[in-house]
Amino acid sequence: MATLHPRGPKPSRLTAGQIGLYTFLILSALFFLLPLYTMLVTSLKSMEEIRQGRIFALPDIVDFNAWKTAWSGACMGTQCLGVRIGFWNSVKITVPAVAISVLIGAINGYALSFWRPRGSNLLFGLLMAGGLIPYQIFLYPLVRLLANLSLYNSVAGVVLVHVIFGLPLVTLLFRNYFVAIPEELCKAARVDGAGFWRIFIEIMLPMSVPMIVVASIFQFTGIWNDFLIGLVFAGRDNLPMTVQLNNIVNTTMGERAYNVNMAATILTAVVPLAIYFFSGRWFLRGVAAGAVKG
Length: 294
Description:
The structure is a single chain. The protein is an all-alpha fold. It folds into two domains: 18-78, no CATH class; 81-289, Orthogonal Bundle (MetI-like fold), CATH 1.10.3720. The chain has 14 helices and two strands. Helix 3 packs across helix 13 (258-278), helix 4 packs across helix 9 (196-207) and helix 10 packs across helix 14 (280-291). The protein is flat. The mean pLDDT is 88.
């Protein structure tokens, strides 16, 4: 096939609309990047340099001691353990909660799109209605329920709560994605003798990789950045990184070390940022493939 080349002239100057668009994008980038820049340069300064008040200036001498202290020596009251333990607690909470919620949401979306059991529309409507109710309303009943199940103040308990609150969004994402797939594909597989689970595992799951990435990023970001659920349900020994960061920043013992606080904040945010940047191509592909379809 012959390759087509554009024959029209290239635009020689920027239009007023393009200038306005680029101006808006640059200002938006500065709006979001300026706090990150301030946090980064502050974390690399000594406390003597921070007291000089030059908040936007680059550090005279780059000092990484604040990062070491934030990771393993920052104090929360009388304990000086840093955010290291909270990091591993967040990993123990986030990884299974994301995996379980995405798997169940994919099964729900697949069943609602291709099998449509009796009452499925009603169940889907109730699930979406539950997702619109502020989750703070459910905290006390869930505390009582998990206490009766002996899951309160445990990793399993906080994972269960995150799975419950994440299911409406994940189910909606997968349901909208599977609706865009021709139903004849599922019918042809059923004619060949494939059942519910074989169609799901061998056909639908390989086709839904972009949506798995999108749902995983949404869930991972929400669970990793969560504060309230981790504070209420995790227990003292399983506090996630965000709760420990709050305890470090608000500790009232000794000098307030702004460089350590900034380093601890960046360490808390770096994991979801890294995941988003490394999977951004898949994320955009998944959103374009079905996440915004009604």
